[in-house]
Amino acid sequence: MESLGIVTDHLRPWVERAAICAYELGVEPAILTQCDDCDVSHLADVALSGVEVHSPEAVARAAADVEGCVGLLSWDDALIVTTATAAALAGFPHPSVRGVQRARNKYSMRRRLDDAGLPGPRFGLVSDPAQCAVVVDAVGLPVIIKPINGTGSALVRRADTLAELDRHVREMQLLAAETVSGLFTRAVPDPDGASRIPAEAFLVEECLTGPEIDLELVVRDGRTEVCLVSEVTFAPDSFRESFFVHPPFSVPPHDVGALENAAAEVVRCLEIDNCTANMTFMLTPSAGPVLVEVNPGRPGGHLLAAMAWHGRGVDIPSEATALGLGQPGPSRGDSRLPAVAAVSFYPREFGTVEEIRGLVELRQHPSVISALTMAGPGDVFTATRTIYPVVALVGGFTTRAELLDLHDELTSLVEIDVRA
Known about the structure:
By secondary structure, the chain is an alpha+beta fold. It has helices at 13-24, 56-64, 80-90, 97-104, 106-115, 132-139, 162-177, 253-270, 304-312, 316-325, 359-364, 400-411; strands at residues 3-8, 28-33, 46-48, 69-73, 123-126, 143-147, 157-159, 202-206, 212-220, 223-234, 241-246, 275-284, 288-296, 340-345, 351-357, 368-373, 380-381, 390-394, 415-419. The strands form four sheets. It has an eight-stranded antiparallel sheet, sandwiched between helices.
């Protein structure tokens, strides 16, 4: 029987969903992991451990050892470029390698879009605090500073003054170098320039204003389909999402059309193809839609895939898996809900999670479709490390005001105890 190699460093939550998608599409999942002691017997009959998953050549060799392997897949941001490159080496269906390389390297992405004349923030690169003044002269203040390969808002900072930017750069250099996963200490390829180690150089961007909009895309053989448009609301004074909502109530239809056109332009410019992609735009008052980031090769995080299914009848994980196999897209379901949202619940203060209370009451609420725990006791919540202890998919509202009231009501049900 044919099989799909699922590439992961450890047993992460998305692996189970990818394995289920493989079964549903008629192939056996095979787990290729560097973990030597992960039990994946409940997910797949075939598993290879000790694979150097950050080496495309090693992943391609591992795939050759799997009987009937016809494709490779990873939804881990740190492994998407490696897996696409390995699939190309093995002769399997694969996303455009240059496209995912540009999208996963935010500095490469900014240069490419700027060279094409697409709207974007002023930006620069800082590898030494001594460069901050020069970058501020070029970019202005306030600015956002981030790793070139960041994920999940990790190490994203805002600086309103030169002194604040200098302090952030020094702090981020230390934190990035000490990241246990190695995300910021491995070189990131750039198809249009030199590879860079993220811990050694940070992207500084002009701070944009306006509603933040998230798009879920399926790109197949050069054709871009926008499958979900949702508006993001953040927790006060942070980059942590409070909720995503579809449809985006505050965005008029003509701006939704402009966002969809802008997404298609980004896809063409970066040469993204044959994968799903998650895009975030800022709908600015002066330039219209401006790209914030692209996450290629995987479904959007949080509960965006569930929102796409319940709101639009599109199974994004199955679409992503089918693309990894070179299969046609799965059949679409009927759109079910006129409005759907994904809500996050956070501790009230930083610390180590000790207990989560109120899950039964949350799940019994008539507006809650599902509620999941994505972190638990022992997980650490800090200003530099965002976790999602509880997330819920909700319906039963028709306006933004109703959603805000529902958000407050649900938040009152959940208690997340932490210790300092």
